Amino acid sequence: MKTRIISSIVIIGPMLVFVFLGGIPLLLFCLALSAIGMWEFYKGYAAEGVKAGKAWAFALLAALYFLIGIGEFSDDLAPSTYTHLIQMWLFGAVFLGLVMTLIRKDHNILDGSVTTIGLLYIGYFFAHIVFISGIDHNYHLMVWIVFIAAFGQDTFAYFTGYFFGKHKMAPNISPKKTIEGAIGGVIGATVLCGVFGIIFFRDDDFIHCLIMGFFGAFFGMAGDLIASAFKRKMGIKDYGNLIPGHGGILDRFDSVLLVAPFVYYYILLFVRP
Predict the structure, then answer these.
(1) Distance (Å, rounded) from C-alpha 234 to C-alpha 54?
(2) What is the count of structural domains for the chain?
(3) pLDDT band (50, 70, 90) for residue 259
(4) Biggest alpha carbon–alpha carbon distance for the chain
């Protein structure tokens, strides 16, 4: 537990700096997390004989963040053009997984599927952190909700489960997770996001912070379980060893991958006027 806590502090420190700076520094930070996460994902499946199209995937990842950099932080693209380019990128990501089985005989449909899933599940989902930071008015501050909900849920679930956990939640996927831990995680994330809302937003937006904290906790748990299910399929315990006590980047940020898109689309649909 001691190693896990120390590692969390060490990695959260730089993360807080990049989130606070926003803009291009945050974009580069998310690009780095995406690249490392995708590498871990493809490496895990390689052990099962899956040959992901890594070169193509990383080229598309770089293209995505280049488009985001232009669309979010410059006036060179009209909003509608930017949206269309992102839609074209999504088409390209799926097209890659389909066509790579035709171009090279040593690739099969599973190789293409894993390539596309890694690119979308990690690269595109991580990018939603940058999308949130580019929202106008003060709503860009809600990027903090992503990390408060994800890490708050994870931390409270860990300690609640450690001290009070008795009933297994998903024994076939993640044996250590308990129902008591999940409840503690949801309560903790909701309270922390509510405190954040009280400090930084008006009364109506405070309610939205509570809602995002509550549902974000469930998305965080889902992200954690999905990452664990992938690891089960790969036959590995951790995605890597970059972070002592946690594993790889995906082991630490798996919950963020689903919370970020949820928060972004919630803001667009229910918060931003």
Answers:
(1) 17
(2) 1
(3) very high
(4) 59
